[in-house]
Amino acid sequence: MAKRWYVVRVQSGRENTVQAALERKLRVAGKTEVIPRVLVPVETVTEVKAGRKRTRKKKLYPGYVLLEIEQDEKQKVPVDVFGIVRETSGVGDFVGTHNNPEPLPAPEVEKLLAIVERSADKAPQVQMAFKKGDSVKIKEGPLESFDGVVDETIPAKGVVRVIVTIFGRATPVELEYWQVEPV
């Protein structure tokens, strides 16, 4: 029997609650071997708001939960499992046509699982709203109130390289991403 990933629509903001409820219902019904994984895909990001740096988990697909389901011999979701999932509080329905859920394509599942695993393994990725060529204003530090152009972003370090004109000369300056703002 093959395992395939399916998507379930849930109430937005209740993804983790639905995940816990589904896992509990499956455990009580003895169906954990049919649905071994219930996943709310998240990515860890670091962002700065109001001058404070914070790390948070960002849902990749708000309003959706992924289920790894072992299919029956007809390559369908088992009827009893279908009922357990649909009757869980907060669950809308499977993605697909009525009573015929569509599994996610294998390449898409691999890409999604790689993002989730990478996010869990490494330090949080800094979320920057800048890209090369953007005009920015330095809002903190010795070059405060200077204007410049983004030359490079380095999310791993949380640094933005900005080209600033000082005394008529273009000078590259590395700044923390929270020290600049878009113009």
Descriptive notes:
There is one protein chain. The chain is elongated. The protein folds into two domains: 3-126, Alpha-Beta Plaits, CATH 3.30.70.940; 135-182, SH3 type barrels, CATH 2.30.30. Helices cover 21% and strands 41% of the residues. With 183 residues, the protein is of the alpha+beta class. It has a five-stranded antiparallel β-sheet, with no helix packed on it. A four-stranded antiparallel β-sheet has the order 2-5-1-6, with helices on one face. Strands 4-3-9 form a three-stranded mixed β-sheet. It has helices spanning 15-29, 79-86, 106-121, and strands at residues 3-10, 37-39, 42-49, 52-59, 64-70, 91-94, 96-97, 100-101, 125-126, 135-138, 147-154, 159-166, 169-176, 180-182. The mean pLDDT is 85.
In short:
The protein is α+β, with helices and mostly antiparallel strands. 21% of the residues lie in helices and 41% in strands.
Question: What features would you highlight for this structure?
Answer:
alpha+beta, Alpha-Beta Plaits, SH3 type barrels, 2 domains, 4-stranded antiparallel sheet, 14 strands
State the order of secondary-structure elements, H for helix, E for strand: EHEEEEHEEEHEEEEEE
CATH topology of the largest domain: Alpha-Beta Plaits
Largest sheet: 5 strands, antiparallel
CATH class of the largest domain, anyone?
Alpha Beta
Layout of strands and helices, then pairs:
Blueprint: E1 3-10, H1 15-29, E2 37-39, E3 42-49, E4 52-59, E5 64-70, H2 79-86, E6 91-94, E7 96-97, E8 100-101, H3 106-121, E9 125-126, E10 135-138, E11 147-154, E12 159-166, E13 169-176, E14 180-182
Parallel strand pairs: 3-9
Antiparallel strand pairs: 1-5, 1-6, 2-5, 3-4, 7-8, 10-11, 10-14, 11-12, 12-13
